[in-house]
Amino acid sequence: MLSKGLKRKREEEEEEEALAVDTWWLDPGHPAVAQAAPAVASSSLFDLSVLKLHHSLRQSEPDLRHLVLVVNTLRRIQESMTPPTTLPPVPNPPAAPSVADNLLASSDVALSASVASLLEDLSHIEGLNQVPQPLADEGPPGRPVGGAPASLGALDLLGPATGCLLDDGLEGLFEDIDTSMYDSELWVPPSEGLKPGPENGPGKEETPELDEAELDYLMDVLVGTQALERPPGPGR
Amino acid sequence: MGEDTDTRKINHSFLRDHSYVTEADIISTVEFNHTGELLATGDKGGRVVIFQREPESKNAPHIQGEYDVYSTFQSHEPEFDYLKSLEIEEKINKIKWLPQQNAAHSLLSTNDKTIKLWKITERDKRPEGYNLKDEEGKLKDLSTVTSLQVPVLKPMDLMVEVSPRRIFANGHTYHINSISVNSDCETYMSADDLRINLWHLAITDRSFTDIVDIKPANMEDLTEVITASEFHPHHCNLFVYSSSKGSLRLCDMRAAALCDKHSKLFEEPEDPSNRSFFSEIISSVSDVKFSHSGRYMLTRDYLTVKVWDLNMEARPIETYQVHDYLRSKLCSLYESDCIFDKFECSWNGSDSVIMTGAYNNFFRMFDRNTKRDVTLEASRESSKPRAVLKPRRVCVGGKRRRDDISVDSLDFTKKILHTAWHPAENIIAIAATNNLYIFQDKVNSDMH
Buried b / exposed e across B375-405, counting CB within 10 Å, b at 16+? Predict the structure, then answer.
């Protein structure tokens, strides 16, 4: 389940080890860095922030403050890493997918490699997660994050958010990404919606798989709709 | 900010009077009651320990009103929410005392989800000489009872009894970060990341409507959470809450039932010269406290404490650097998650000195009048009992004096997050991980 490039561990210290290469981090406001390559420094910071986000989402009840602060920091880093965007506008672009667009437009190799690794991990997700799927309590079912699910005709096949697994027949279409994640809503604690989720033991042990809510968010932040239309890159 | 190493220049010299070591668990909250006679601590294991100040004795004047354990009880237990497959921690997040209205003491204690009202009573007499029961409470054989006696109250060893009077459950979807008792003594509020509830102390099955709700319609639009809240000490309709973006909102409950729009917003514009990726994180307010006078608010963010005047929303009237030497280390502090540590802050009784904790078991005090500040350390190794606490200094390079600590040798696992100041005297309670230190000012117990 571990990806090739990224260490995904529970302990923050181990996450630090994974990024030990970048020990020369300087405060981005530091004058020395301002003239140096801010994009490279920020890339390490970006990786760290993504790891933190991931770690936060793995908690059964994420610390909302921590999560919000990490996400906002991630957005700041994103904005600084790319020049003003020249990408074609995405329909209904909330912050997350446009951030992902900028990310994809970046030619930063390290960044792409991280994203690719993460996507590869996502593709290995199997089975139901621990967190019950809330039904859409925000109105019409569909992606919680705006974007263009309609452009992915396959999503329509899933129908309204039911939290059910993909049928076997659909799996072939989404060998990279498990799109049933699109039906779950980030951060909504299970009490916010109905819970048709299955019974599962009170296992507190951390499962190796990401749960659907985490995947949903990671997907939206890192991939966006454009990514799904991208041809598979090397190493996938 | 310069530090004074000469203790004579500092307004008060603290001596270490008594320290109670609790090996069991990490202390998660500390709170004096309204007279300062009682001090409550909550810990990670859901326990509450109450200390009582011994009255000053003429026979032993050096024992100057020390604090001894008065009562210990298990407030919260770990719970498992089967519906959500979640374990609810028993850690006590906050304790707040109710103003004393009769012989009993009452306090509110809360974990992430449930608030409990506890009543603490003393029993020092018991009735003896029942007609129908014997000394052990067993019914007597009536044929052996030949005369009637009136039961009398006899003194007994003091027994402190604690009982839960109310349990306020199911009011919060998110984690409770603060509770505050209203000056009307009838209501209190509890705040989680996105909502603030108003409760009546006598009614447990429901809270009043959310008085604050900042949950966005779509959770992916969430960019800000509530971090702390407090009622105004005198005006029962006013309360303040702070956010993760560093803003304060002063709300008036008379204006609307849902206090989202009718409020004063206190926010300091970002300093462009100090801007970094971490600007937002370090601006997140971890604690907010009204002054005793009710004229000011004190906030703590990662690197500073700020005093705000209720009449000026544009910026704080005073800013004090707690540990500015960490500003160049924000990256590694972000890495280690230390940047998310939530420090509390306190006023002294006269609102002239403010106190907050830091790393390496250091805590800082700032005198608002003289603008002097001091760094002290709460550790058994560094100070002998009854000795005056020695001011500490962190050196950032340049000239280093003998007992200075360099920034790189600070121990970031030793954090003083929770501190409390006696409401009237110069007595402070410092929680250093699982140790509680109580320091008293022997020399000068007057207010400044």
Answer: bbbbeeeebeeeeebebbbbeeeeeeeeeeb
